């Protein structure tokens, strides 16, 4: 699989853990960016998506807000 995701997370977010665990299960490699420890990335993310919450995942040029397996598969199938 050639897809690679970027997952924006925070240190205390259970849905972020669910997202990364799910990507592990379906064998999609990802990079995590922790907005708790890197506030500049959090600000940049807010400018891009207009959303403050995490997880936010960029996969195949699409943004997935929250833990949403259906959207993950839609991005993989695109």
From TrEMBL:
Source taxon at top rank: Bacteria
InterPro entries from the UniProt entry: Glutaredoxin, Grx-like_ET, Thioredoxin-like_sf
SUPFAM superfamilies reported in the protein's UniProt record: Thioredoxin-like
Pfam family of the protein (one): Glutaredoxin
Record CDD domains: NrdH (cd02976)
Residue stretches making up the Glutaredoxin domain: 6-64
Name by which UniProt lists this protein: NrdH-redoxin
Species the sequence originates in: Sporosarcina ureae
Taxonomic placement: Bacteria, Bacillati, Bacillota, Bacilli, Bacillales
